[in-house]
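Lecture notes, continued. The same structure-token format from the folding unit now serves as the input rather than the output. Read the line below as a description of shape only.
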């Protein structure tokens, strides 16, 4: 398969936008991640494991991994270099791609805009892809609670200039990045009122935001398991690139796979550390080399059997 020009240029020059990272220096990671090594020194082992799999699922978070985190969610863009690498990987018959995001399903689909791949929106509550369409039934049933909460938050935040509210269908995000301490305290009190009056809802902390969603709702780990089961793959066949805030559920599903965490977290279930989005693009380039070659012989370890997906309330659309 011929590589796009952008990918070929990267393979030749090795230059990526962004600040220098552990990739350039080949050294350890930032101090808070002392127990998790940067992926580069371990690349020969990583490459051998990936090369041995006949089929591989590559799964990704979006914000802070593929796309730099933006002050406002609407401003986040997938860099052209990263898109070219993803399209190259997606063109291989060995590779399936999945994008799991806290964004709404329609939002992440529009930002990635790649056909024949899997998408999970609202932290895994909505899953779509070739031959797969599922939604969390509990989250669907809690929509009336969210509508009531949304109306209350809208009234409470009219005078809070640093706050904006995002309705994502199955969840509601309240962003306070630009709020004053006083505005944030008023917002916190409003969220407490909502949870008292709507016990089916729970507040989840995010990056400069609070999110309202159904208690015991599906998470990214559940969505990842659904996609693997649908494809007939095990966790040993999966690679996940995520970040410290929202992807731990997915990391925990890949005990036999490979997981990479971007961001400074002292407690992560991921196997390796990523410095930033530019570092993630470097890893994508390395994955291109490992996966576009024929698979190496594999004897198996007996640990690759699929685990059943948990019997939880769902709605097949």
């Amino acid at each position: 398969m011929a590589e796009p020009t952008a990918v070929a240029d990267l393979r030749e020059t090795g230059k990526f936008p962004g600040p220098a990272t552990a990739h350039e220096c080949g050294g350890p990671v930032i101090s808070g991640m002392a127990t998790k090594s940067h992926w580069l020194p371990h690349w020969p082992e990583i490459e051998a494991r990936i090369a041995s799999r006949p089929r591989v699922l590559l799964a990704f978070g979006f914000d802070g991994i593929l796309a730099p985190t933006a002050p406002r969610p609407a401003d986040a863009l997938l860099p052209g270099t990263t898109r070219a690498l993803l399209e190259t990987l997606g063109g291989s018959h060995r590779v399936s791609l999945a994008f799991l995001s806290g964004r709404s399903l329609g939002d992440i689909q529009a930002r990635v805009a790649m056909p024949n791949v899997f998408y999970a929106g609202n932290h895994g509550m909505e899953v779509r892809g070739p031959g797969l369409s599922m939604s969390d039934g509990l989250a669907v049933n809690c929509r009336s609670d969210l509508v009531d909460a949304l109306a209350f938050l809208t009234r409470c935040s009219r005078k809070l200039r640093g706050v904006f509210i995002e309705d994502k269908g199955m969840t509601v995000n309240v962003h306070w990045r630009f709020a004053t301490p006083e505005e944030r305290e008023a917002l916190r009190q409003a969220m407490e009122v909502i949870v008292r009056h709507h016990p089916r809802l729970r507040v989840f902390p995010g990056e400069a935001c609070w999110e309202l969603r159904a208690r015991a709702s599906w998470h990214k780990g559940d969505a990842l398991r659904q996609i693997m089961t649908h494809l007939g793959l095990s966790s040993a066949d999966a690679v996940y690139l995520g970040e410290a805030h929202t992807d731990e559920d997915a990391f925990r599903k890949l005990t036999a796979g490979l997981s990479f965490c971007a961001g400074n977290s002292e407690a992560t279930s991921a196997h390796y550390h990523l410095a930033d989005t530019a570092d993630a693009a470097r890893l994508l380039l390395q994955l291109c080399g490992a996966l576009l070659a024929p698979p190496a012989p594999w004897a198996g370890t007996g640990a690759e059997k699929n685990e059943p997906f948990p019997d939880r309330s769902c709605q097949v659309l």
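Point for the exam: Residues 115 and 209 are 31 Å apart (CA to CA).
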